[in-house]
Amino acid sequence: MPSAEHAVATDDKVRNYLLDPHHPNNGGKADQFTRYGFSRDRHGDLAAALRMHAIMNEVIARSTSRHGEKFVVRCHLVTPDGRSPCRTSVWMINPGTTIPRLITAY
């Protein structure tokens, strides 16, 4: 993925979406990530792991829309408990920018 080393996983996206067990639209993602030792209190750990995920793994799908260029990255995610499950992260580079931002992960 272009500029993967500069990818951004915002605190809001990670803490208040991916790691919020009460978020109405996260489809159980919080349970999935906390199972591997991630937590809302230390949401920066998941943000850092997702940025590394974008750098270390292959893009398995790429598409372009009016919203920008979307990249789907899949496989090993380094976790606090030492496991390395195969997970998927989705990133977007908006028109006029060069920095990928996290859309979701599962």
Keywords, separated by commas or semicolons:
globular, 106 residues, single chain, 28% strand, alpha+beta, 4-stranded antiparallel β-sheet
Structure in a nutshell:
With 106 residues, this protein is of the alpha+beta class. Helices cover 26% and strands 28% of the residues.
Give a quick account of the main beta sheet: strands, pairing sense, barrel closure. Answer: 4 strands, antiparallel
Low-confidence region ranges: none
How many domains?
A: 1
**Secondary structure category:** alpha+beta
Percent of residues in helical segments?
Answer: 25-40%
Record the strand order, biggest sheet: 1-2-3-4
Please, could you describe this protein's structure?
There is one protein chain. This protein is α+β, with helices and mostly antiparallel strands. The chain has one domain (4-105). The chain is 26% helix and 28% strand. The chain has three helices and four strands, in the order H-H-H-E-E-E-E. It has a four-stranded antiparallel beta sheet with strand order 1-2-3-4, with helices on one face. A hairpin with a 7-residue loop joins strand 3 and strand 4 (101-105). The chain is globular, with a radius of gyration of 13 Å. The chain starts with 10 loop residues before the first helix and ends with a strand. The relative contact order is 0.24. The model has no long low-confidence stretch (mean pLDDT 97).
